[in-house]
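REVIEWER CHECKLIST
Item 1: Sequence provided? yes
Item 2: Single chain? yes
Item 3: Sequence as submitted:
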Amino acid sequence: MKLLLIDAKYKKRIRLSRKALDLLKKFRVVALYASVQFSSKIQLVVEQLEKQGIKVVSSRPARTKEKYQILGCDCFSGNLKMKETPDAFLYIGDGMFHPLALVLQQKESSVFKPVVVFDPISKKSSVLARRNVEKILRKYKASLMKFISKETVGILITTKPGQQQYSAALSLKRKYPNKNFYYFLDNNINYSSFDNFPFIDVWVSTACPRIAFDDSLHIKKPIINLNDALRAEDVLSRLRIN
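Item 4: Structure as written out by the authors:
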């Protein structure tokens, strides 16, 4: 079966509200990102910010099609591929899934950059801080500690295009030769089936990284991402929690 992916673009003009501008005016450099529906419609936003004397920076993150676009899985600092450090982030879009990625990707940063969110549909503005993911990060820290100390690890591998990391998953065995790894391969990851494998001490997800963050609160056993498993002790020492 052939699959055709078509972007659903927002057609109306996007203009920041006065409240959004007030939230941003104290920052000198702002990194601007949006979901794919809005990423090609934000030139007026750039002009508004520059008129306020704010320098606008951005990038084309990994796996995206164009500048300004961000994915929900861009929750690791290297994904954004930014050349300049901003004072804050501005996200244009509806919902909180994408802007929370900008919070999570700062989990090891000593200085947190606020994430201002502007919804072009409701015209509402808000500011996200590290406290918005504090519960998730506290459990993630405990999961990292479990991964370091435990020996029996289940590795979750999806067959979904763009998420399949089988070869990278094999590198864990070379990194940790004293651990016992069990590989679980499927198209969809069903959390309820985890109970069928009670001998697993901790899970490592090689699929969408948001599983080990957002969904961890609904998973009984500890779970971390492959990227962090490969440098678990370093991540644990650098993790910032209020």
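Item 5: Key structural point noted by reviewer: The radius of gyration is 19 Å.
Item 6: Recommendation: ____
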